[in-house]
Design a protein that fits this description.
This protein is mostly helical. The chain contains 16 helices and two strands. It has a two-stranded antiparallel sheet with strand order 1-2. InterPro entries: Ion_trans_dom, SKP1/BTB/POZ_sf, T1-type_BTB, VG_K_chnl, Volt_channel_dom_sf.
Length: 449
Amino acid sequence: MMAAAQQHRKKRSLAIRKTDAMNHAERQNGTVLDQIWIQGDPTSFLRSPLAFEAVFQYYANGVVHKPPELCPSAFSAELEFWRVPTSYIGACCSDSVSPLERLLESSKEDKVDDTSFEKLRFGQFRRRMWTFLERPGSSMQAKVFELSSTMFVMISVLGLSFGTIPDFQVLEYVSSGNQTILLPNGTEIIQEDIEPIRIEHPIFVFTERVCIAFFTIEYLLRLFAAPRKLRFALKPLNLVDLLAIMPFYLELMLTLMGVDDKKLRDLRWAFLVVRILRVLRVIRIIKLGRFSSGLQTFGMTLQRSQKQLQMMTIVLLTGVVFFSTMIYFLEKDEKSSPFTSIPAAYWWCIVTMTTVGYGDVVPATTTLPITIIVDNFIKVAQEEQQTEQFKAELLAMEEQERQLQQEQEQRRLKFNQSQKEIIINNNRDENKGNEQNSGKQPLIFVSNA
């Protein structure tokens, strides 16, 4: 190990100067080699040289590649010894680390060290606040706060859902415009048209404001206690927290600017924006992922299935576009056809390809007996499969017979060769005897048996 370290020492020092990814300031604790080269003393380790080659590559280009000769568990143990984060393992070698180890490593990287608060203003106070907010198991008070946050999320989502039920809504009469009425005596009267609309019950409005106030205070406290503000703000769960409260304040801003419900209906784009903002309120249900390990596991599953989901989406979109185009041109001249355009046929293709079969939109032209076709297709497919299996078995039998014939031919050739050697040896012995008896040159006979 010492020889390997001396061999790579000069290369490593050059690699560190050439790459920013290996800057010591970017690693909080540093690896084992960082501490060794800082001390400057020669050190020997009884570790695997193959694993050290991967460690050296990490210092050279910032990526870890697992040697194929190493066991995944042994390689993970070596990385743990050298304190090399498993998050730097290349995508081609990602299977060398188990999901549990990768999760533990990511949790270690996301964990904020207590020393990060030492040089900050109000460092001790912010450290205690960070522990209280981010580590529910640190105290009973932190656990109660976590349960309270979960309760507010549930109340907010339930209030948003039940607030749309007509029985829980109240009528509000708003002006929809003015109407001029001409009386028989020629007098004109301007009458205001009143339109009843349903709005959320004041209880749900009050509940929404209380929940928004709690979420706002919680987010601001987390942001204040975070030692790295930008890193905190860019985390997915913190982005969800911000998106959960933004719609309320944007809608409030439009109201303060004098854009009420009536003006919103006149300004269709603004009304659409407000509707989208109100829909975004439901995103706060994702806040439960902060407290639920099951939702976090589901998120990791979706993240690891990105390639499969992308492939499925591409296949689905390709089929939707192709069959929508085909059904549109097939039923273009039918008056009763619901497919007035290619995009109008998208929904029918989606529910058909996903085997939902909603049935609200169906073709108007004559259809074929699909059931019979499908049944015959299954039979033909089974027969074809049996034929292919029979051909494979026949080829296997022919291959075995050919190998048997080759073995028999080899045994026959070996037998003939051994017979020739026996005859040659017998002739040699006979010739030697005749030579001794008569003093003549021996004759050698070779039989072609």
